[in-house]
Amino acid sequence: MSKTILSLQDVTIYQEGNKILSNVNLNVNPGEFLYIIGKTGTGKSSFMKTLYADLPLTDGEGTIVDYDLNGLIDDDIPFLRRKIGIVFQDFKLLPDRSVNENMLFVLKATGWTDAGEMQEKIDDVLDKVGMKNLTGKMPHQLSGGEQQRVAIARALLNDPELILADEPTGNLDPQTSVEVLDVLRKINQNGKTIIMATHDYALLMKFPSKTLKCEDGTIFEVVQRTV
Fold it and tell me: What range(s) does the ABC transporter domain occupy (predicted)?
């Protein structure tokens, strides 16, 4: 295991051939909670997509959970993503399956076979996000905040070394956003490394942490009071 969860040196990030961010240098240590902020279109999502290999890293050097991003082959991407939990703005739950079935789908897809072990793991992660009593509900029967809690639980299923949360509160009202971020912070306090992209500066004021800002084609650390 390397000392850093994520290391980027002299990285340039592209989206569809267009340069989005350049001269990106960053080290993230185990257990950190890191915000990525910036206006829409400044590169937050492109940055996150590069980390989970949805966009290739072609310029610079990068490692994440012991994988080289710039030398990554397609066959390695599923294994990389098993070591990373990803939480999206739009939840991405399977609409025709219950909460429990959504969890089972992920475990089976990632190689779990023992029914008892799978159910024990599902109960454990749902309990961590306060959703253990709603396992039989369908996604449309849940509020937005409840759906996002399930999505966070899903991201925890394979005990990832890193959680990437891309605008996880973007579709939620302010109070629910605070509740969801509180869940993420508690997970972080239990040892998980989290990188969260957001445009909600109110959350940063309530839950301050190390913050990087995307602006003018680059990304840099900011002190809390200037965000």
Answer: 6-227
Domain membership flag for residue 139: yes
Q: How many CA atoms lie within 13 A of 225 on its CB side?
A: 0
In whole angstroms, give the CA distance from residue 14 to residue 17. 6
| Cα distance between residue 212 and residue 50, in whole Å | 16
Contact present, 205 and 181 (Cβ < 8 Å): no
Q: Is 208 exposed, middle or buried (0-12, 13-18, 19+ CB in 10 A)?
A: middle
Side-chain-side CA neighbours of residue 43 (13 Å): 22
Mean pLDDT, consecutive 10-residue stretches, the chain (227 aa), reads 85 94 96 94 93 94 95 90 92 95 94 95 95 94 95 95 94 93 94 94 90 94 66
For the full predicted model, state whether its pTM sits above 0.85: yes
User: Is 25 within a domain?
Assistant: no
- Strand arrangement, sheet containing 210-215: 84-87, 162-166, 193-197, 33-37, 210-215, 218-222
Token pair belonging to 123? 């109960």
Inside any domain, residue 21: no
